[in-house]
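Quick one: structure tokens for this chain, please?
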Amino acid sequence: QMADPFLYNTGEKKKNGCLGHEVQIEHIKAYVCRPSFFTDKAVIVAHDIFGWLFPDIRYIVDLIAGHGYITICPDFFKGTDPWKTTDHWADFADWMKTHDPMKVDKEADVVLKYLKEQCGAKKIGIVGFSWGGMAVQKKKKKNPQLTTGVSLYGRIIRDSKKKKNLLNPTFFIFGEKDHTKKKKKVSCTGNYFPFPEKLKQYCKVAYKIKKKKKQVHGFAQLKPEDMKPEDKPYIEEARKDMIDWIKTFI
């Protein structure tokens, strides 16, 4: 019987909630959480600018694992400093130069090898938040080993000269009131929607684009104690959408 340490929609931990542990995988560290039973299905979680140690992202790892998936969040920053709430946005562009979400191939390959060889995973998906949402798009365009992906409020990689194609089913989730789209200095994590007409023209696999009402950037990974009552239904809906998409394709 499947262990379910979280209520399906809310992400509220039950008393027997599963907790993960840290592992060293070649040159990077990662946070891993497994269900209490064997499964060959896995999900990679790509963290946001606050990094793999951020409590909110580990909460999401535990949540997904609670639905029956080996779930792993690698340190895509390779030990370098994540963005901190005390940092100044004027420095963000310079910080991004050494934290490029388009340069995650080596780390992703290491994690895929670990999941297959050490965890017995045969079907693997990827979920990314903000910075990690961009990384999801990069991997979904180039890595056929990934069964599906969910990109949550990650800026859409814009290149009008290239076909908007995806190798496997991908779900794009955004907040309607994403403030980052209005700030040029943080536009690299901003809310830019995919070009639906290009996806429709070139994409041969399932895709979905959904905008959550009244929600700001980063809404979907909030822990229960940080949720405002008026936002809770939309957060729950986003998480249910994410899990349903994963269950459909993994």
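Residues 1-17, 182-194 have pLDDT under 50 and may be disordered.
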